[in-house]
Amino acid sequence: MKKIKKLIVGAAAFSLLAGMTGCGGAQTAAPGSSSSAEQTVSTDGSTSMESVIGFLSEAYQQKNGVKVTYNPTGSGSGIQAVQEGRCDIGLSSRALKSDEEKTLNGTVIALDGIAVVVNPQNTVTDLTVGQIAKIYTGEITDWSQLGGNDAPIVCIGREAASGTRDGFESVTDTEDMCKYAQELTSTGDVIQTVASNPNAIGYASLASVGESVKPLNVEGISPSEETILSGEYPIQRGFLLVTPKDKALSETAQAFYDFCTSSEADELIRKAGAVPVAK
Amino acid sequence: MHALLGICGSIAIAFVILITVFLVMSGVPAIKEIGIINFLFGTKWASTAVEPSYGILPFILTSVFGTAGAIILGVPLGILCAVFVTKIADKRIGAIVSGAVDIMSGIPSVVYGLVGMIVIVPAVRSLFGLPDGANLFSAILVLAVMILPSVISVSETALRAVPREYEEGSLALGATKTETIFKVTIPSAKSGILASVVLGVGRAVGEAMAVMMVSGNVPNMPGIFRSVRFLTTAVASEMSYSSGLQRQALFSVALVLFVFIMLINIILNIAVKKENRS
Questions:
Q1: Where are the alpha helices (DSSP H) in B107-135?
Q2: What pTM value is reported for the model?
Q3: Among all residues of chain A, which has the CA nearest to that of B50?
């Protein structure tokens, strides 16, 4: 009995730890130390920029043999990491706040439309920004109020500090007012949930919207590269490279920065599903 | 050699002490700043709002209710399964069931979560006619399945440890097999079965990944069909983005969770000791 008891105490404590580290694992992987490792550029930040930075770094590595590391921690932590010198270039999918702008530069390299998606069975095809805001703040609760089926609306969103949520809530002016039915921790989860619930509405980066869900027109404009670049499609945000103001980038990091902001990067950014800004 | 083994032994203790000290040190400042009453009994969690509020009562109650629900559903099922394997089934079938239980305990929690998300959540939605199926009830169902392997295997060991003479005595006095199992075998294995329950509680309280995928993750006060957030998922869903007081508060949530697990272990210790003495 004593043995079993010990086993249980250990196992219980272990399952707690395992449960917690299991989820924290992805973000605890430390970025390669930036200054000491020659020929490496470390980036850290927005999870929404994963595919953009993936395409850019892969092409850059093939071209120049310089390794670019990427630590997907979220815009907030990425900005913090640059401030603390833990990475060369921070990645942010939200504009810098005024106190961050004092010490950091943000350069927009691409635009990303946030698509508002519904289940393909949903008959609603077009909403205004105002209607979307009303849906998420709980003023409109049934699809029939929007000309759809007689069914309650299920609002799917992202967790509190997500760049996509921040982008969405600031454009629709619903910060801290959204009444979500689910707060999910990744874009894929949002798509999956909307695809499996006929009453759901969600938002996700246009780049990751596939066949399984239906993107809505907003103010009569369908989300696409042209409408995002021209600014017609209203729900969009910038992808930023964040660099320190007081400290020059290392030579390798500066070369990668130049590459990302050159017209050479346009095609890669497009491949990644975002819209390159005019150079 | 003895010294080496001694060092290996003390590594485990060192980790426990290290983690405890780390959690207390990083968890206490935020509790102090927020105030322990506001923190533990506040009903509103809005960590990124302009005027943030850090009340974790919704998380605590969700974890308590979620675990209780999982125990209510999972423990009877697990114990009866253990009885079947040890007392009823013939050896071959018993071995098959035991093997399945072992495989079940090896399935990663993210897989439970995935199955829950794709099968249980839509099923709960259509079964109960709800607008959305990601809620406390779905989480309880997933947790109940997840605690089964630990409940079954520990109960099995306890049931096997009951001396054969007890059962033979009962049968010789004219009791049926069913009567013997429920009136002699299970009561004799009580402390082991109790241990399996506490182990199940530990697993359910500490699970993060699977419940995150099926519970909806909104910091509401718990209700059976409401979207809820557990103590574990509160830490896991915000930690990667957090900063400042929000981050410290998440450490405090982890500390509360840690205290929970410690209390469960202490209760287990006391219960098992008492049982052994009587």
A1: 109-115, 121-128
A2: 0.74
A3: A176
The alpha-carbon gap from B93 to the nearest alpha carbon of chain A, in Å, equals 25
Which stretches of chain A drop beneath a pLDDT of 70? 1-38, 161, 278-279
The tens digit of pLDDT for each residue in A206-229 reads 877 888 999 999 999 999 888 888
Top-tier CATH class for B58-277? mainly alpha
CB interface of A with B, residues 172-201, below 8 Å = 175-176, 180-185, 189, 192-193, 196-197, 199-200
Strands A217-218 and A67-72: unpaired
d(CA A184, CA A157): 6
Give the other-Cβ count within 10 Å of B87's Cβ. Answer: 18
Structure tokens at B87: 């007392």
Backbone torsions φ then ψ of A43, nearest 5 degrees? -120, 155
Taking the mean position of all CA atoms in its chain, how far away is CA B69?
A: 10
The Cα–Cα gap between B146 and B149 comes to: 7
Choose, out of A122, A159, A162, A189, the residue to mutate when testing the contact with B (most B CBs < 10 Å).
Answer: A159
This complex has an ipTM of: 0.72
Q: Domain limits of chain B?
A: 58-277
**Which residues on A lie below 8 Å from B117 (Cβ)?**
189, 192-193
Q: How many Cα atoms occupy the beta-carbon half-sphere of B262 within 13 Å?
A: 11
Cβ contact (<8 Å) for A12 and B202? yes
d(CA A279, CA B77): 65
Residue B51's Cβ-count burial label (10 Å; 0-12, 13-18, 19+) is exposed
Q: How far is CA B214 from CA A27, A144, A199, B94, B234, in A?
A: 22, 27, 17, 32, 14
**To which residue do tokens 């409408």 refer?**
A227
Q: How many residues does chain B have?
A: 278
**Tokens standing for residue B241:** 């983005």
Is the Cβ pair B191, A1 closer than 8 Å? yes
